[in-house]
Amino acid sequence: MDTVDVYADILFLINLGMDALCLLMTARCLHRSIITWRLVSAAALGGIYGVAVLFWEVPPIFSFGVDVVLCVLMCLVALGRERLWLVSGLYLLTSMVMGGVMTALYHWLNRAGVGDMLPHGDEGVTSIAFVLLASVGWVLTLVWGRVFRKAESHRAREMLVRLCMGEQVASLTGMVDSGNLLEDPLSGTPVIVLRQETAFPLLSPALRDFLRAHSENPLLPEDLPERHRMRLIPTKTAMGQGFLWGIRLDEVILNFPGGRHPRSVKALVCLVDLENAPVDALIPSSLLI
User: Fold this and answer.
1) Residue 163's CB: how many other CB atoms inside 10 A?
2) β-strand 191-195 against 268-272: which pairing, if any?
3) I want to staple 34 with a disulfide (CB 3.0 to 4.6 A). Which of 8, 27, 132, 275 is the partner?
4) Considering the entire predicted model, what is its pTM?
5) 125 pLDDT exceeds 70?
């Protein structure tokens, strides 16, 4: 019986790279940011699984279920619990499409004669061929991401945002901002950026005083009322890294244009000085999906 040599380290790196590529494409499609360590951790799970199945054969009847569970776990690690089933479904679809694209690229390269220049083993496909195909995939993804974001930047839409906090209710004008990628690093909850002077009336006097006097303090006083509503949101700009205080309101409702029904969304809000913005709220694109 013929044997085939399999290099577990190369197989792990190939699976890690392809899983990371599919997770990045999924995040781009959903207008979601993704933290590097979470991306690497999730992709590493896929890489470990790809190696583990060589030594632990999953019965065919359970194979698909195990694959689905792993995909859901990877999406949970990479992108959080927000709309987990939607994220997982899109990731599965992206993985299948990328698998087809890689196969098509490999056969096209072979027909073009490129395959003859690559080292071949008994099975015909080598790690060098996979690395080449993965590199092509990465380049295509980067180009697609730039084109996609450029197109999205011209699709700004205005809508009405209704905010509820106790008995206080405010209706603000908002604009979809694809550049707003702020989110809670723990839960992945998107963040709406609000003009502070229009949103302050929603807050209790204690919260308003804290934000006015201690907005740059990353520690919350123990006696601060409603401190359970506060989340520390990391930011990264051309001027460096920092943070904003995210606040969980009782309800956030988006009134979509075009006759769509208003929808309550799960989102935090950050109060900042929007000097030059024509609206009172910058809404992340991920809340429109």
Assistant:
1) 23
2) parallel
3) 27
4) 0.55
5) no
